[in-house]
Amino acid sequence: MTIRTFAALAILALSATASAAQNVPTPRSHFGFEPGEDRKLANWTELTSYYEKLAETSPRVTVDTLGTTTMGRPFVMLTVTSEENQARIEELHAIQMKLADPRRVSGPAELERLLEQGKTVVLITHQIHSTEVGGGQTAARLLHRLASSDDPKVLDILDNVILLDVPSLNPDGLQWVADWYRRFVGTGYEGAPMPWLYHYYVGHDNNRDWYAFTQQETILTVQKAHNAWHPQIVHDIHQMGGSGARIFFPPYIDPWEPNIDPSLTTAVNQLGLYMAAELTTQGKKGVVVGAQYDAFTPARAYQHYHAGARILSETASARLASPVTVTWEDLDGPRRAYHSGQRSWNYAAPWEGGEWGLPDIVDYQDSGAMALLTNAARNRRYWLETFYGVGKRAVDGWDEWPGAWVIPGGQENRTGVDYALRVLTMGDVEVYRSRAAFQADGISFPAGSYIVPMNQPYASWANTMLEIQEYPDLREYPGGPPQRPYDVTAHTLGYLMDVETVEVDEAVSVAGAERIAIPDFHFELPARLSGRGAPRVAMLKSWQEPMEAGWTRWLFDRYGMKYDTLHDADVRAGGLADRYDVLILQSQDTRSLREGYRTGVLPEEYTGGLGAQGVAAIREFVNGGGRLVAIEESVDFAVETFDLGIHNAVEDLPSQDFYIPGSILRLELEPGNDVTEGLETETVAWYARSSRAFDVTDPDIGILARYGSGDPLLSGWVLGGDHVAGMPAIVEASVGRGSVVLFGFQPNYRAQTVATWPLLFNALRR
Fold first, then answer.
1. Which residue in 123, 303, 631, 726 has the fewest CB atoms around it within 10 Å?
2. DSSP structural state of residue 190
3. CA torsion angle for 664, 304, 511, 414 (degrees, to 10)?
């Protein structure tokens, strides 16, 4: 081939590329505005239509509908890489799957070939929290650039990276929030809060579902993105409050959960610092690292247990898509591990205040994503070697891990066993069911027992889910208040599910055993809660509905429990006894219940709370023979409304003397009452910051359960456990012809506490 011919072909190729890029529609041509403009939000219908056009016009992009959301909307993922990589995507996927399981690599020669040919797989997820509106708009801007630009940096990314982009982890909420905002923009209600949960069931808790896998969106992401590709990097784009730094990147503060491979800790550190350096070099102020967020709970970090680095970014929020002005005085000073008004190693260029809005949010998020993708491309070999190394060390086994875990067969709590097995197997853990009885560590196990060998790629997931958590005693200063965990401190499946699990030191052979598939699980409602004669149950669904109520609706819907939801006006109308036998108040504070949103914040139909009429209607309902079940914070409302001789024994204790930030305690049940009927005398209680321990001064109030005597802690972190040890945890008071049952702890914590579901359901019988 002559130089002239080669040059001519190169010009033709470049012309074809340029032509293809010209055919890719810009966001402005599709939406009528640039993503990130003040007071402009594209909704999910418009966004998915745009992504289809990107896939139609750019050979770099494919789009797949992974399934449907809770409310039936399409749940989509885009795969973005070079045209050459798209042509061999199945081959590249096969390489990735071999690197994910070192047992499939035949030797050094094959490993070298895989490392040379493989690509860095990056998963970026946007807007799981729907009021954090920047992420969904950033996706459109970022994906257009990658689909159309011939900038050398973009081309390097496309050549070396396979990007899996989930442009919203909560499409239902994205649609609702965008439509709600657009309805009121330009009015007195612009930027007002939406008066219902922005995920139909779980609201903000949808990013606490990464090991229980209860919600449809979580299941689709785990099975069809995480497990289907096992990305080396996951970038989870969030927003935070607006009174401090402008954006956070890792490193995370301590503690890291101890089953995470140390090489992932250092990988996360270097990548987060690289992203921070890139943005700071671009002149963006307010970038903080090593502050606020820890890396402890697997409820927020699935990929850390699957050989990948999870990068959380948190960008300062505005008022949805409306700008705000933040003065220097508004910045709130000392925060966890940095000061918003002082330059430091981890906050090198403080933001000094000013106007902040959606254009800034999208610009920061877009720059962060591009920095991450640049690092993934330039360090492709490093990411693949790190990924393979994590899996290899897991297959070889850690000294800190047992040889195996065994879940003995024949346990009566089939719901709990199947739920625990589902958590493990959906997390890609290999679990085997024995065909014959066997012994390990001198313990006899029956046929049908489940064996979890600890020499497999995702053993870290198994160990963190099955072992007891011992959260470190971290203080703000020696002897001072506790350093608050970002989330909770316990997740031991055996306790949460009421399942026996056994740790054995020796390896257990699975020869002849059958590897199980992902099981479903089912909970049998107590007989008196279904069919003729079942109580008529209602639950308050106020315009400030707490997430705990949403989780309870999920539980009821999952198992066919019949119930109604009542808005404030339904209660105010009275006559509850004509329609219901039981009314549930989930954890909601008294002011929110009574007053709700004040006039002027939202349109009139969403304001006012229960008001005096609603309180009177509930009094009439109970006095006339109804049962009120109040949980955690709503206990205060019930105590005040019925003048009960009860108060929270620990409410005035300083945190350095008493602190339980989400831990599992022993619970001792009192026999001889409907609520504890049919249960063993000891179970567990999920105790969090909103929980209570009762001081009962009225001798006529029945004590149904107490927190464990002595040291009540089973898993997690407790300071001052003696303040709750032996204290009443569930009580019942007779009121008129009715009754009030008060739960001091959450019996349905994030739909994970199978152990205490029976207590909740029993409380609904009367």
1. 726
2. T
3. 30
Pairing of strands 663-669, 713-715: antiparallel
Residue 259 has which token pair? 């089953």
Beta-ladder partners of 140: none
* Residue 380 belongs to domain with CATH number: 3.40.630.10
CA–CA distance, 746 with 755 (Å, rounded to integer): 11
> What's phi and psi for 128, nearest 5 deg?
-70, -35
The number of distinct structural domains making up the chain is 3
Query: Which residues have a Cβ under 8 Å from the Cβ of 11 and sit 6 or more positions away?
Result: none
Q: How confident is the model at residue 20 (pLDDT cuts 50, 70, 90)?
A: low
Which two three-digit tokens encode residue 728?
């009443």
Query: Cα–Cα distances in Å, from 672 out to 73, 525, 590, 629, 681?
Result: 48, 20, 31, 19, 11
Measured CA to CA, the distance from residue 669 to residue 705 in angstroms comes to 4
What mean pLDDT do residues 505-524 have? 95
66-81 confidence digits (pLDDT tens): 999 999 999 999 999 9
Q: What distance in Å separates the CA atoms of residue 46 and residue 67, rounded to the nearest whole number?
A: 18
Q: Are 657 and 614 in contact (CB under 8 A)?
A: no
Average pLDDT over residues 448-459: 98
CA 232 to CA 217: how far, in whole Å?
Answer: 21
Which pTM was predicted? 0.96
Of 465, 480, 515, the last residue of a domain is 515
To 5 degrees, how large is the angle CA 473–CA 490–CA 413?
A: 150
Contact criterion met (CB below 8 Å) for 277 and 367:
no
Neighbours of 36 (CB within 10 A): 24
Q: Beta-carbon neighbour count of residue 551 at 10 Å?
A: 23
Q: 407 in a domain, yes or no?
A: yes
Weakest-pLDDT range from 3-7, 200-204, 242-246, 402-406 = 3-7
Q: Give residue 736's pLDDT band: very low, low, confident or very high (50, 70, 90).
A: very high
Contacts of 125 by beta carbon, 8 Å cutoff, 6+ apart? 166, 169, 221, 234, 235, 236, 237
Residues 369 and 405 in one domain: no
d(CA 180, CA 166): 23
183 within some domain: yes
Tell me the CA end-to-end span of the chain in Å, nearest whole number.
Answer: 90
Q: Which residues make Cβ contacts (< 8 Å) with residue 415, sequence separation at least 6?
A: 497, 521, 522, 523, 524, 754
CB distance 374 to 277 below 8 Å: no
C-alpha 35, offset from chain centre: 26
Q: What is the pLDDT of residue 333?
A: 80
Please say if the pLDDT value at position 473 is more than 60.
yes
Q: How far apart are CA 568 and CA 166, in angstroms?
A: 37
Q: How confident is the model at residue 15 (pLDDT cuts 50, 70, 90)?
A: very low
DSSP code string of 612-679: HHHHHHHHHHHHTT-EEEEETTHHHHHHHHHT-SEEETTTTS-TTT-B-SSEEEEEEEPSSSTTTTTS
Write the single-letter amino acid at 220.
L
Identify whether residues 568 and 496 lie together within a single domain. Answer: no
Task: Examine the domain organization and report whether 497 and 535 are in the same domain.
Answer: no
Identify each DSSP E strand in 375-434 by its residue range.
404-407, 432-433
Burial degree of 37 (CB within 10 A; 0-12, 13-18, 19+): middle
- What average pLDDT is seen over the chain? 96
Q: Which residue range forms the structural domain that includes residue 654?
A: 527-763
Average pLDDT over residues 179-199: 98
